């Protein structure tokens, strides 16, 4: 049977993991992000539009 220290460590690990996941999900709002559309020519001469996600945030999860 696990000791009290082991159970406390497992519970603490769970709380830290849950808190970290919750923080990442809630803080990833993409308010300052935008989608840039770039038009390029491919090797056949057809015009191709490429969408690019541009974020001004320092960290984007």
Can you give a write-up of this model?
This protein has 61 residues and is α+β, with helices and mostly antiparallel strands. The protein has one domain (4-55). It has one helix at residues 4-27, and strands spanning 33-41, 47-55.
Shape: elongated
Radius of gyration: 22 Å
Calculate the terminal CA-CA distance, rounded to whole Å.
Answer: 39 Å
Percentage of residues in DSSP E strands: 25-35%
State the low-pLDDT regions, or none.
none
Q: Describe the main β-sheet briefly.
A: 2 strands, antiparallel
Widest sheet: strand ordering: 1-2
Task: Assign the structural class, choosing from mainly alpha, mainly beta, alpha/beta, alpha+beta, or little secondary structure.
Answer: alpha+beta
Fraction of residues in H or I helices = 25-40%
Number of DSSP-assigned strands: 2
SSE order, one letter for each helix or strand: HEE
| Mean of pLDDT | 85
User: How many individual helices?
Assistant: 1
Number of domains: 1
Q: Which labels suit this protein?
A:
two-stranded antiparallel ribbon, 61 residues, alpha+beta, single chain, 39% helix
């Amino acid at each position: 049977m696990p000791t009290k220290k082991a159970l406390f460590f497992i519970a603490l690990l769970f709380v830290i993991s849950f808190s970290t996941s919750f923080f990442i999900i809630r803080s990833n709002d993409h308010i300052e992000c935008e989608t840039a559309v770039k038009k390029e020519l491919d090797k056949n001469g057809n015009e191709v539009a490429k969408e690019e996600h541009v974020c001004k945030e320092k960290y984007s999860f």
